[in-house]
Amino acid sequence: MPTYSRVDLAFERGEGVWLYATNGKRYLDFTSGVAVNALGHAHPHMVEAITAQAQKLWHVSNLYRIPEGERLADRLCELSFADTVFFQNSGTEAIECCIKMARKYQFACGKPERNRIVTFEGAFHGRTLAALAATGNKKYLEGFGPAMPGFDQVPYADLEATKKAIGPETAAIIIEAVMGEGGVRVVPHSFLKALRKLCDDHGLLLIFDEVQTGIGRTGDLFAYQHTGVKPDIMALAKALGGGFPIGACLATTEAAKGMTPGTHGSTFGGNPLAMAAANAVLDVVTAPGFLDKVKHNSLLLKQKLAEVKDRHAGVIAEVRGEGLLIGLRMVPPVSEMVDELRNQEMITVAAGDNVVRLLPPLIISEAEIAEAVARIDRACAALALAHPRPATAGAA
Ligand SMILES: *Cc1c(COP(=O)(O)O)cnc(C)c1O
Prior knowledge:
- It is built from 12 helices and 17 strands.
- It is an alpha/beta fold.
- It has 2 domains: 45-285, Aspartate Aminotransferase, domain 2 (3-Layer(aba) Sandwich), CATH 3.40.640.10; 293-322 and 352-388, no CATH class.
- A 7-stranded mixed sheet has the order 4-12-11-10-7-5-6, sandwiched between helices. The chain has a 4-stranded mixed sheet with strand order 1-2-3-15. A 4-stranded antiparallel sheet has the order 13-14-17-16, with helices on one face.
- Helix 2 packs antiparallel against helix 9 (272-285) and helix 11 packs across helix 12.
- The chain starts with 10 loop residues before the first strand and ends in a 10-residue tail after the last helix.
- Pyridoxal-5'-phosphate binds next to helix 4.
- Pyridoxal-5'-phosphate (PLP) is lined by residues 90-92, 95, 124-126, 176, 180-181, 209, 211-212, 237-238.
């Protein structure tokens, strides 16, 4: 179905941060399948782990124990605030689980009327009907019938509006610590702290959507870890499988107390092949020094991008983001920059607010960062030519 207006470009092979296209060209991958290929393409450890698992067992029903999944869940709990995990196959399913769990928690607390969730403008939580209602983007909702009820959307990072939206029917608040699709907007930590306090004061659950930020993208394993705020529930997906479809909903024992046998399920969720992929990703991302390197490379890339911005102030308005989730807010239309970067054999992805998202694999080297910056610089020069600044600009 033509739900994507696809670029006429196909890749046949990948290696590290490089994608080899059927047109014979080699592209620098600054999309990572939208924050998925954290270890780049064909990472040897992942290839080995998936191949070994494929020769043993791919799928069994969740009616039986799945040791690879128990191991992954134990590791995720060990590494985070969580005590318990439910596995799915995508981000939007992980969000569904978060929403169901929050409602069921209040029900289990004897407050079934508490079934509404506060969400924020500019958020993105996925494309199933509940996740779409939480996303609240009119463009995505239009034509799909009545939006699922139970969501109260307030302006981004507006504490007064958030307080006003909380009522006797509120169950939870859901937010991305860094808004990805919404334009790489880093939510102020003070606002997240205020949300934590509101949740504690009102008996609400705080849900972090870390589908895009999780698994090292922001330089910490989870973005919440350097905000000083712990959620009660967290959604993961994208990078967790490094390219293998997987989602996970993590929670404290308390938040998950309504999720008793029979209340939720998934046929594929947590199958041994997916679990092997995610365990392999964790092996690499949690190895000593890996995330320090991500933080180091993030600083390096941001510094160099700041220089590019200074050289091309008429093209790049702002460099923002955390870790290797970086946004360039553009002056000309973002689509022109994405196209021009593709001409420079580098692929990126647009986000809201006229932003180009730079999402390189986390394994990128300093030499590859230098190469990327050179291509971005050339793309800016091309756009500057196409959009000459008015003669008076900067004359004062
Ligand atoms: C991508 C994304 C989702 C949806 O994930 P899918 O795997 O596409 O269903 C949800 N939340 C955030 C923050 C995302 O970036």
